[in-house]
Each structure stands twice: as structure tokens, then as C-alpha cells.
Amino acid sequence: MADDATAPAPRTPDESDVIPTWEEIARDHGRFLYTVAYRLAGNDSDAQDLVQEALIRVGKGLERYQPGSLTGWLARIVTNVFLDEVRRRRRRPTDPFPDDDPERVLPTAPAADEVASGLSDEVQTALGALPQDFRGAVVLCDVAGLPYEEIAAQLGVPVGTVRSRIHRGRRLLRAALAEVPR
Amino acid sequence: MSAPPAVPAPDDRLSGYLDGELASTERAAVERLVAESGVWRAELDEVQFARNRLRGLPPREAPPGFFERLLADGLPGPARSVSPVATRWRRLTAAAVAAAAVVAVLAVPERDDPAGGGPTATEAGRREVRTVTGAVADPDRPRDGAGADDSSHGDGLVERIAESFTDAFRW
Predict the structure, then answer these.
(1) Which region holds residue B5: left if phi is over 0, alpha if psi is between -120 and 50, else beta?
(2) Helix, strand, coil percentages, rounded to 5, for chain A
(3) How far is CA A82 from the centre of its chain?
């Protein structure tokens, strides 16, 4: 009944004992970083800022990186950058992220392939309208493909909280996509 | 006769189930509830629909040239090894260019002296070096009168150049 859905999301093959250089990460994993950043931020301008800041933190943290799930580590960094930025903008609400400002929920410019594929922009809009805690958990699970335990460690919350946020996030997303045909 | 046990409302175990994150006992319980309850089946379908939509999103491409620019700029901050050396060379080059400009500015009035008694190139060079370093005042340069304007103009420039030298060698 859910056989096809229980398969893990596709991931970048990153299980390696070799520590990549900063340039290799920027070159080989930049697309992954940008995708996660865009799904979190909801627009290209903020996504670029998030990726730039994430790569700065990658450079600072690379010496301490333990070989393992590189995409998990990168997803954690970009998510933390996003959450830090959300907190910063809450303190100085001059340039809010989308869910603080309903006018900005609409994506600025869907990618050409998304327009061609039809419904991706609606999904992105619905994703951008989720509360940030839910969005972070959902993106880490369904975009970055991380297991609950890793998401919990990265967000600093119990696994049960992760499961709850993901589930509630998906339900809200489904409600927002109510007009979208199956 | 006892009533059948009430079916609990669907909960976040459904997402855990879809993600393969449930222990075997929980998984069996969810499967039983889904099999017995239309409400659970409907909820599973809804959550699975949203999950599939999210996972079906294509990768988002950065604007053209974004990563190329990042790679060209390199890692900012202290870890960027090129920066201090490049900055020092830029300062030294700027100072050298400025010094050459001083030579040109100071040499022109001397050559235009109608009395024809200007210093030789060696003398001019000696004077400039002394002035720039500030070690020796120029004994030949008039303190007032016709040459005073040129002198004050040159000294102001020289002072600025001296400052730039100081800045350049502060490294």
C-alpha cells in the first residue's frame, strides 16, 4: 500500500572517507545546497544569500568535518543559516521571509523546468507558506532526504517532534494544494 | 456485549510509516488501522500525495554564473590565503606609482626655470628622496617669493605620498 513511498528519497552519493575541499563542495554540491536553500527561502535572491553564507560556514567548519553524510552536513548548515536569518529578521522585521509576509509568498520566478513541469510552482508556494519550523523539517526530509534521527540532531529537537512537524507540514501542504488535481 | 474499540484519529505515525521510520510494532498497528478504517486510508492518501509532490520537485538551478563567481572569488575571510599578499602588492604598486607621479610633478618647474640654473637630475632625485623620507629639508628650495607656491604645492603632495608609503609598509 505504501511500498513505493517508503523508499528513501534519492540522495547524492556522498558516503566517503575523503574530506572534500571547499572548491569541490561548491562545485559538486552547489546545486544541492541551492535547491535546499531555495525550497526553504522561496525565492532566488534569498537562496543566493543563504548559499553564500552556508559556503562561508562550510569553509570555517571543514577542518572539523568528520567524513560521513556530506549532504546531511550541508543540509544542516544551510538550514541553520536559514533559521538564523529568520530569527534575525524577526528581531529586525524590515525584510521578512515569505511566511512573515503573505505578499511575498508567491515565488518570484519559477525555474523554466518547473513551469514546464506544471505544478512545481504551486508546491513551492504552498511550501513557502508553511511555518518555518514545519518547513525546515519537511525540506530536510523530503528535499534533502535525511532520516528523522539526523533531522532531530540537526534541529536540536526530539525525533517525535520531527515526525510531528513533518506530518503537520505535509497536511498543511496538502490543504494548500486542495485545488490541485491528483 | 462490548462495543468495538474506538478507532483513534489518524496521527503522525502515518508520515513515519511512509518514511519507513516506525518500529515493527508501530508499523503493524498502522497497517491494521489503515486496513480497518476508511478515515485512516483517506488520511494516508492525502499525506502521501503531499509527500510525493515534495519529492517530485526538480532541483532548483542557481542563476547562470552564480557558482562560477563564488569559485572565482574563493573562500572569504582569514582562510583565504591569497588576500593579504595580494593586498600588500596592490599597496606597494600604488605607492610606487604615486612616487613616480611626485618625480614628474617636482621635475617640471625646475626644468622651466628661466635662469637655467636648475638642478641636475641627480640633484633633483636626491632632493625628492630626502623630502619624501623627511630626513632632510631642501636647502636650495626658496621658503618664500616666486618659488614658494611651487614649493608648497609640492610639499603637500609629498606629504600625501609619504603617508601612502607609510601605509604601504605598515604590513
Answers:
(1) beta
(2) 65, 0, 30
(3) 9
Contact (CB, 8 A) for B157 and B130: no
Q: List Cβ neighbours of B111 (8 Å cut-off, separation of 6 or more).
A: B118
Q: Are A131 and A99 in contact (CB under 8 A)?
A: yes
Collect all residues of chain B within an 8 Å Cβ-Cβ radius of residue A174: 46-47, 49-50
Question: Which of A149, A157, A46 has its CA nearest to residue A96?
Answer: A46
ipTM > 0.85 (yes/no): no
Cβ-count burial A31-56 (b if 16+ within 10 Å, e if not): ebbbbbbbbbbbbbebbbebbbbbbb
d(CA B82, CA B79): 9
Q: Length of chain B in residues, anyone?
A: 171
Q: Which of A174, A177, A179 to mutate to test the interface with B (most CBs of B within 10 A)?
A: A174
pTM of model > 0.80: no
Q: Lowest-confidence range among A38-42, A104-108, B23-27? A: A104-108
A with B: how many residue pairs have Cβ under 8 Å apart?
131
pLDDT value at A11 more than 70: no
pLDDT for residue A155 is more than 80: yes
